[in-house]
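Lecture notes, part 5. Sequence design as translation. It can be helpful to think of inverse folding as translation between two languages: the language of shapes and the language of residues. The source text, in structure tokens, appears below.
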């Protein structure tokens, strides 16, 4: 079986990324791009990002998680701390996250260090989740092998009964990570494959070095 995709080709013409129009701080540019992507109609999930970790087996692994908050310090997502990614981060906190925003022909690639956020912040976010999501997070031993889907459904039913009318507390194996960036690369598609790439790299004095990369 095969399919030739050689004629999948598109000219990128929606925007440009020029040094004169960018801020000294990449988080400000991130925010500007995020707003522009939303304002232009957005994609299905603008906050979906690919998180790449180095696993205990030495292989990189990507998976999609949802960005739930960004601040001047970094990018926050929530997950199971005992999951494959949780174990990977415990051993190698250096991770990469990336966003693809096809509606604006943009990509952002962020290298940084992941660390657990404070418990009270994870509590606050867990509290804000719908009940079903809370129970689902508790019931699923994320990334472990399970015998069947039925087991999960049964465990969920049991837990629903057990916690009926009670407050559902965040389990300590579930919470947030913040990825504190050391490098952020902004990619803007341009015609004739001469795309714009601007990379910000964190310096020892906490300034950001700005460089243009060849496409
Ligand atoms: C659109 C989308 C959003 C997702 N958001 C999250 C998330 O925020 N947190 C999470 O733990 N998994 C999320 N997942 C599931 C992960 O991709 C992954 O399957 C899961 O975290 C287990 O990964 P691991 O075994 O590598 O640790 C999402 C998947 C998709 C497709």
């Amino acid at each position: 079986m095969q399919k030739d995709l050689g004629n999948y080709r598109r000219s990128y013409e929606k925007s440009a990324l020029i040094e004169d129009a960018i801020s000294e701080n990449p988080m400000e540019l991130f925010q500007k791009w995020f707003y522009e992507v939303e304002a232009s109609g957005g994609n299905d999930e603008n906050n979906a990002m690919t998180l790449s970790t180095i696993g205990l087996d030495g292989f990189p692994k990507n998976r999609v998680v949802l960005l739930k908050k960004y601040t001047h310090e970094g990018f926050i997502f929530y997950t199971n701390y005992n999951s494959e990614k949780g174990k990977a981060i415990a051993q190698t906190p250096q991770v990469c996250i990336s966003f693809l925003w096809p509606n604006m022909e943009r990509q952002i690639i962020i290298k940084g260090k992941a660390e657990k956020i404070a418990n009270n912040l994870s509590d606050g976010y867990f509290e804000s989740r719908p009940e079903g999501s809370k129970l689902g997070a508790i019931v699923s031993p994320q990334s472990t092998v399970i015998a069947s889907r039925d087991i999960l459904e049964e465990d969920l039913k049991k837990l629903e009964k057990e916690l009926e009318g009670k407050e559902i507390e965040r389990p300590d194996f579930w919470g947030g990570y913040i990825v504190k960036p050391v490098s952020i690369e902004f990619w803007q598609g341009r015609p004739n494959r001469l795309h714009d790439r601007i990379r910000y790299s964190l310096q020892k004095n906490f300034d950001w070095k700005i460089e243009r990369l060849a496409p």
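The translated text above is only one of many valid answers, since several sequences can fold into similar shapes. Residues 26-39 form the longest helix (14 residues).
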